[in-house]
Amino acid sequence: MRTVAEINEKIQQQKAVVLTVEELKARVQEVGVTQTTQEVDVITTGTFEPMESTGAIFNLGHTDPPIKIRQCWLEGVPAYAGLGAVDLYLGATVMAEYGGLGDAEESRLNTVLPERGGGHVIEDLIAGKPVQLRALGQVTDCYPRPSFETTITRDTINQFYLFNPRNLYQNFIVGVNGGDRTLYTYLGPLYPRLGNAVYSNPGAISPLFNDPQLEIIGIGTKIFLGGGIGYITWEGTQHFPLQKRLPNETPIGPAATLAVIGDAKQMTPQWVRGCYFKNYGASIMLGVGVPLPVLNEQVVAHAAIQDQDIVAPVVDFSIPRRVRPTFGLVSYAHLKSGQIKIDGQMVRTAPLASIRLSRQVALELKQWISLGQFTLTEPVAPIPGDRTFLPQDRWGSQRASE
Fold it and tell me: Which of helix, strand or coil describes residue 351?
């Protein structure tokens, strides 16, 4: 048995033994759970994948005379202004609309950046690039200014932090298309007649697979977020820990999710990248790493799972319903082999996540901890384990009947 305080003391002395989760799995194969537990203090996990329920909060600072912003565009991408006078929230999936930028500027952006969204603006600000801002105000006695245009950077605004309602899916689906035309989805293009299969989770190296019941991870856990330091703040939206599970406690489909926060001024564009899915929309690729303190043998036993030990459902996107038919479950080992068999047909597979960069997140977090630059935190509260998922079927049924 160890405590987080004891592990932190070793980290500060640069004496902690830290393994990436892949190194941990290999070590367990060599010497078993008990000896590995005695040897290792911290396990680092990581992922680099699209996380569209991501966004940034900004405080611009007050103008003179002051403005109460009610509409705002950053490089033509609308930001939500229903907060304080100069507070904004920019979602990663909002698409540029180029409203009111002027004919010449709109023409330039439409020509050069036709597939630009909030994730690209967030990436640019993190990279230190200038971003054009245009705001319209609600004129009041306190805030008499009706409009404002300027160029901002991360260094010319006050707060700039990511506050993401849903990151780190514990598991997800595999998308296929049994129809007769290409479908453009949040997994990318799915080709007809089972032309391909796309999975988004990196598998056994992904953070939440290695703490299946969220016994180590909780509210207040410090994490690697976008190349900086972040924290888990709450359960994520669509958090569904009651998903059916295998005997090893891992879920067979989408399950737990987490909400996270972190100072974007510390982050790097290497780990925060805007992206675009053809005919679907904008999103953001995000690097997230979670350290697991080795408090006991159970931590190591859970983290020892392999890709052949975890599964995901194969879902047919050609059926335009919330509940789509599946072709059963498939292991991540089969997914990562490059092809799976569906109804007797061999179907090529591809990950939406970057397996290479997911590994690099875990490795970079390992280096931070080994050098004493990152200590661990104990959760201040657990992530709820009793949430169910409530679809809005009643509204869909009502509309259908009308």
Answer: strand
Q: DSSP states of 162-183 as a string?
A: EEEEEE--S---EEE--SSS-E
CA 199/CA 208 separation, integer angstroms: 16
* 105 Cβ contact partners less than 8 Å away, ≥ 6 residues apart: 98, 132
Q: How many CB atoms lie within 10 A of CB 148?
A: 18
Q: Among residues 142, 323, 381, 400, which one is catalytic?
A: 142
Cβ atoms of 44 and 18 closer than 8 Å? yes
The per-residue pLDDT of the chain, averaged, comes to 93
Beta-strand runs (E) in 51-143 = 55-59, 69-74, 77-79, 87-91, 131-137
Q: What are the tokens at 1?
A: 């048995």
**72: annotated active-site residue:** no
Q: What is the pLDDT of residue 322?
A: 81
What is the model's pLDDT at position 397? 45
**Pick from 18, 10, 50, 19: nearest CA to 282:** 50
Q: Measured between alpha carbons, how far is 209 from 59 in angstroms, rounded to an integer? A: 36
Token pair of 294, please?
């080795």
Rounded Cα distance between 325 and 310, Å, is 20
Residue ranges in the chain whose pLDDT is less than 70: 98-114, 389-402
Tell me the per-residue pLDDT of 186-238, one tens digit each, with 9 for 90 and over. 999 999 999 999 999 999 999 999 999 999 999 999 999 999 999 999 999 99
Is the separation of the CB atoms in 11 and 372 below 8 Å?
yes
Walk across the sheet containing 147-152 and list its strands: 77-79, 69-74, 131-137, 147-152
In this structure, the number of other CB atoms found within 10 A of the CB of residue 299 comes to 22
SS3 301: helix
Residue type at 201 in one-letter notation: N
What is the rounded distance in angstroms from the CA atom of residue 123 to the CA atom of residue 267? 9
Report the alpha-carbon distance of residue 79 to residue 135 in Å, rounded. 10
Give the tokens for residue 252.
């067979």
Count of beta carbons in the 10 Å neighbourhood of residue 316: 17
Would you give the end-to-end CA distance of the chain in angstroms? Answer: 61
State residue 389's pLDDT score. 65
Cβ burial of 104 (10 Å; 0-12, 13-18, 19+) is exposed
C-alpha to C-alpha distance for 364 and 359, rounded to whole angstroms: 9
Q: Is the dihedral of CA 303, 307, 310, 315 positive or negative?
A: positive
